[in-house]
Amino acid sequence: MDKSNTGKLFVGNLALDTTQEELSAIFEPYGQVVSCSVLRQFAFVHLQGEGAAERAIRELNGREFRGRNLVVEESRGRPLHSTKVFVGNLSGMCTTEDLQQLFQTFGKVLECDKVKGYAFVHMENKEDALQAIEALHGTSFKGRPLSVELSKVQPSKQAPTGKIPCVNCGKQGHYAGECPVGKPSLEQYQSQAAVLAAAAAAAAGLPLQVQQSVHNSVYNTSTFDPTY
């Protein structure tokens, strides 16, 4: 999928019982509907195609749909103070809509990003998120016990893209590829790669134990290629 031609749209003022199929149908004339997530009275639509999102906004914003005037605009991302919850050990049968309905019983769900086996649920209110965690962690859902906890991602602490902190000479202020002392050993390269892999896991919001597992897996491999 060419992500450069995919636009994310916010669709508001929907009827309570609007379905994913109904909403997809009104956007399909403007481009390929990559995904459509319907929440309570609003939705997010990913529309692919050159200029597709702009055309949809121009034609559909303000249009009457099931007795309501649609609000269609470019998604501006989540509110600054939303709370991100990690949900792990998901069944293969679990859908985005299933998770949205599950968490909506505790408060307003802003968005749900599901990946194979786990998901991130963004809730408007932190207290609601904490209640959901307390109530749902360890409970059976679709035949599997859920792992539910606050996401530990800290975006402001992300390492710069493509930069591995130097552990070769022990000095700060430069990166591995810029070290003036010399080329690190294979073990040091493994350590550097493990740090970067763990940082990527943290940026993805994975739990601490998963981050540690990623670090150890990369560091202990005997087939590591030091080329980067």
Structure description:
This is RNA-binding protein 14. Keywords: Cytoplasm, Metal-binding, Nucleus, Phosphoprotein, Repeat, RNA-binding, Zinc, Zinc-finger. Its main location: cytoplasm. The protein has 228 residues and is of the alpha+beta class. It folds into three domains: 3-74, 2-Layer Sandwich (Alpha-Beta Plaits), CATH 3.30.70; 83-151, Alpha-Beta Plaits (2-Layer Sandwich), CATH 3.30.70; 156-220, no CATH class. The longest helix is centred in the C-terminal third of the chain and has 18 residues, at 186-203. The chain is 30% helix and 25% strand. It starts with 5 loop residues before the first strand and ends in an 8-residue tail after the last helix.
CATH architecture of the largest domain: 2-Layer Sandwich
Order of helices and strands: EHEEHEEEEHEEHEEEHH
CATH class of the largest domain: Alpha Beta
Indicate the percent of residues in helices. Answer: 25-40%
Quote the average pLDDT: 76
Computed over alpha carbons, the radius of gyration is 22 Å
Question: What gross morphology would you assign?
Answer: globular
For the terminal residues, how far apart are their CA atoms? 26 Å
Key words describing this protein structure:
228 residues; alpha+beta; Alpha-Beta Plaits; 3 domains; 4-stranded antiparallel beta sheet; 6 helices; disordered C terminus
